[in-house]
Amino acid sequence: MFFFAMIFAIAMAYTVFLLSSAKEHLEHTGEPKHAVVGALAHSGRVIFAAAAVMVAAFFTFALADPLPPKEMGIVLGVAVLLDAFLIKLVLLPVLLRLTGRAAWWAPAWLRRILPDVRFSHD
After folding, report:
1. CA–CA separation, 47 and 64 (whole Å)
2. Mind listing the pLDDT tens digit for each residue in 37-63?
3. DSSP tag of 65
4. Per mean pLDDT, which range of 76-80, 97-101, 117-121 is the poorest?
5. Is the per-residue pLDDT at 122 higher than 60?
6. pLDDT per residue as tens digits for the range 10-26
7. Does some domain include residue 118?
8. Cα of 11 vs its chain's centroid, Å
9. Which pLDDT score is estimated for 37?
10. Do residues 26 and 35 lie in contact, with contact meaning Cβ atoms separated by under 8 Å?
11. Is 120 inside any structural domain?
């Protein structure tokens, strides 16, 4: 349960960063295809670098003598590696590209309830 909570918390940071960048590009260009490409170009290197630092930090726990820190370091390092590189930088952009405008759709009743948040700086 502990590992799941840690992995979930770490994974959300990359998701919010990538999706907010995609939303900003969508508001600026109006095209979902350009939004995904722009989000990856704008935030992909930052996500890659942050994940690489976290993976390196977690893998240093594998050098510890007791078994629990070793296990924690390997599990969290592999999880961040898979999540950031495979899911956030490959699968999520592909999913956004395939779904197009439907990825950004919300029902009218929900749009009335939620605040109008804009990311673009126009």
Report:
1. 27
2. 999 999 989 889 989 998 999 999 888
3. S
4. 117-121
5. no
6. 778 888 888 989 999 99
7. no
8. 6
9. 93
10. yes
11. no
Closest CA to 62 of 53, 73, 52: 73
Domain assignment of residue 122, yes or no: no
Taking residue 40's Cβ as centre, other Cβ atoms within 10 Å add up to 22
**What is the rounded CA–CA span in Å between residue 101 and residue 48?**
26
Tokens for 65, please give them: 């003598």
pTM: 0.78
Joined tokens for residue 102:
């439907």
Domain that holds residue 79: 2-113
Measured at the alpha carbon of residue 96, what is the angle toward residues 50 and 112, in degrees to the nearest 5? 100
Q: Kindly state whether residue 34 falls inside one of the protein's structural domains.
A: yes
Among candidate residues 48, 43, 49, 51, the one with its CA nearest the CA of residue 25: 43
Beta strands in the chain (DSSP E): none
pLDDT band at 112 (very low <50, low <70, confident <90, very high): very high
Domain count, the chain: 1
